[in-house]
Amino acid sequence: MKSFIFRLEFVLLIIVCTSPQLSLQMVLTDVRLVEGQPNSGRVQVQIDNSTWIDVCDDMWDDEDGRVVCRQLGFPGLDEHLRGLPIGQQSTKSATRFNCDRSDSTLSECRHVSSDMMCGSDKGAGVTCSGVITDVRLVSEPSQPNSGRVQVQINGSITWIDVCENGWDEDDGGVVCRQLGFPGLAQHLRGLPIAGQQI
């Protein structure tokens, strides 16, 4: 009778990779737009009512942008922005947002918080739909019917200069009528600007 001896050899290979320290412990308490205009810019979130951190653009899409715009009081989203440069980076970040139509704030959306920075060109942003709520002319007190046009968006306290791109007599006529003047005498271009622009 023949006997067989089987020898089995197992090689067990285990590897451990380093990864960002991920945490779902951070509580998002607020949102803001930076490095832009009142209705457009890079998104930052506040954690635990204190520190502002960057939002990375991984998986950033229209649904996430709509939630930001709604949370900030804008009527809607014009576009979500990816690949925005981040100057002074926060030491933590929030990323991989997965918002849906039922979410009214970013804190309600599924996301990942990390102890890693986004990367210098990985900022997420939005351009929200803005509603012009007021208009004024910036001029000398002696010329109340002439000056540089500024607007407020969504009742903001910030006045924004209007750029001359595409500015014509029809636009000037609308401004004059809105300010209570009977009509337009002249539309002006090339005026010096200081401050935020739209």
Notes on the structure:
Its main location: membrane. Pfam families: SRCR (PF00530). This protein is mainly beta. The chain folds into two domains: 108 residues, Mac-2 Binding Protein (Roll); 68 residues, Mac-2 Binding Protein, CATH 3.10.250.10. 10% of the residues lie in helices and 34% in strands. The protein has two helices and eleven strands, in the order E-E-E-E-H-E-E-E-E-E-E-E-H. Strands 1, 2, 3, 4, 5, 6, 7 and 8 form an eight-stranded mixed sheet that branches. The chain is elongated and about 60 Å long. The relative contact order is 0.16. About 4% of the residues have low confidence.
Q: What's the CATH architecture of the largest domain?
A: Roll
How many domain units? 2
Strand content: 25-35%
Helix share, percent = 10-25%
Shape estimate? elongated
Query: Regarding CATH, which class of the largest domain?
Result: Alpha Beta
Q: Structural class of the helices, strands and pairings?
A: mainly beta
Helices and strands, in order, run as EEEEHEEEEEEEH
* Head-to-tail CA distance between termini: 95 Å
* Count of helical stretches: 2
Q: Tell me how many strands there are.
A: 11
Rg from Cα: 26 Å
Give start-end ranges of low-pLDDT stretches.
17-24
CATH topology of the largest domain: Mac-2 Binding Protein
What is the CATH homology-level superfamily of the largest domain?
Answer: SRCR-like domain
- Average pLDDT across residues? 83
Question: Biggest β-sheet, characterized?
Answer: 8 strands, mixed
